[in-house]
Each structure stands twice: as structure tokens, then as C-alpha cells.
Amino acid sequence: MTKVNLKKIEDAVTMIIEAIGEDPTREGLLDTPKRVSKMYAEMFEGLHQDPKEHFKTVFNEEHEELVLVKDIPFFSMCEHHLVPFYGKAHVAYIPRDGKVTGLSKLARAVEVTARRPQLQERITSTIADDIMEMINPHGVYVVIEAEHMCMTMRGIKKPGAKTVTAVARGIYETDEIKRSEVLSFIRMK
């Protein structure tokens, strides 16, 4: 896969600065193309990583009950407007046959999945599907709450509005009691 082309980003940012009627040689804007290119390389580093890699290491533990990591902060870029959206992810699963993954691996998968041009719905599904594929738990439930700058800064201009997406896999698709249990833990402060 191609790595980020910093020079191309710098040239494009210079063109944007010119296109909006600004002077790219003005002192305050002089290094902006370089700064933006470095920022984009960082913000889109997930394009060059596979979130599944984080689930290759599993541990054997006699535990087949809920595992939940909640309030995982993330930042992503809306692929429709290339402006940020950010929020929290809550990732739950019920291990099968004693196969558990490291807790930090759940947070890392969120991070890698979010760091690319994205849709919130896709982040939610990708995380759930990757966990199901890689560690084969009884079930996975992923909830993401985010504020989208494309709704805050432009268009409808509704700061504070949150978008919530949820994906249920395995036992969570059919067992309303299990689904209610995980939702109650997510709401708990």
C-alpha cells in the first residue's frame, strides 16, 4: 500500500490557500502546508495498518462472561467533507473457549479503524466484524457516540448533537437480556 505523499499534500494545501483568496507566502501561512501534511499523515495512519493485527495475540483464561472497555476516545475524519468527528467507543464481547484478548488491543483496534477517511457506521461494523473473525467470541457489541464537525461547523450547524451507532454480533443479535446488560454497563458512570 502506498504511504502518504507529504509533498503532494503540501502542494494541495498551498492551492487551497490560494483558492480561498489568501496569500500562502504570508508569515502565518508560510509553514501551514508542511504542518497540514504532517497532521494528515498522522490522522490517516490507519490506512496503512490492519486493525485485525491487534487480535492475533490471545490469552487463555477461564472467563466466558462480559468483557467491556468503554469510553475509548477516538478522532476520525468524515470521508464526505474531510472534517473531524470524534467521540467515544464502547466495545464489549463474551469470550468463547477461554480466548481473551488484551484490553488495550480493543482500544488499539478502535484507533487504527478510526484513523482513515471514515463513516461512523463503518467504524462500528469493522470493529465488531474484526473481533468476531479473529477471536470468535460468543458475541460482540460495539456502540459509538460521536460529534461530527460537518454538522457543527457547516450545514445545519448543530453543535453538541451526537450520533450513536451500535452493532450486535453473535449472541447479542438475539439475546435481549445480554444486550440490555451491556447497555446498562455502558450507561453506568
Question: How would you characterize this protein structure?
Answer:
By secondary structure, this protein is α+β, with helices and mostly antiparallel strands. The termini are far apart. The radius of gyration is 20 Å and the shape is elongated. A five-stranded mixed β-sheet has the order 5-2-3-6-7, sandwiched between helices. Strands 1-4 form a two-stranded antiparallel sheet. The model has no long low-confidence stretch (mean pLDDT 96). It has helices at residues 6-19, 32-43, 103-114, 120-135, 149-152, 176-187; strands at 58-60, 67-78, 84-94, 99-101, 117-118, 139-148, 163-170. It contains six helices and seven strands.
Keywords:
about 190 residues; five-stranded mixed beta sheet; 6 helices; 7 strands
Layout: helices, strands, pairs:
Elements: H1 6-19, H2 32-43, E1 58-60, E2 67-78, E3 84-94, E4 99-101, H3 103-114, E5 117-118, H4 120-135, E6 139-148, H5 149-152, E7 163-170, H6 176-187
Parallel strand pairs: 2-5
Antiparallel strand pairs: 1-4, 2-3, 3-6, 6-7
Class inferred from helices and paired strands:
alpha+beta
Mean pLDDT over the full residue set: 96
Strand content: 25-35%
Query: Numbering strands along the chain, what is their spatial order in the largest sheet?
Result: 5-2-3-6-7
How many DSSP E strands? 7
Sequence stretches where pLDDT stays below 50 over 5 or more residues: none
Rg (CA only)? 20 Å
Order of secondary-structure elements: HHEEEEHEHEHEH
Helix content: 25-40%
Number of helices: 6
Largest sheet at a glance? 5 strands, mixed
The coarse overall form would be elongated
How far apart are the first and last residues' alpha carbons, in Å?
Answer: 41 Å
Organism: Psychrobacillus faecigallinarum
GO molecular function: GTP cyclohydrolase I activity
Binding site for Zn(2+): 78, 81, 150
InterPro entries: GTP-CH-I_C/QueF (IPR043133), GTP-CH-I_N (IPR043134), GTP_CycHdrlase_I (IPR001474), GTP_CycHdrlase_I_CS (IPR018234), GTP_CycHdrlase_I_dom (IPR020602)
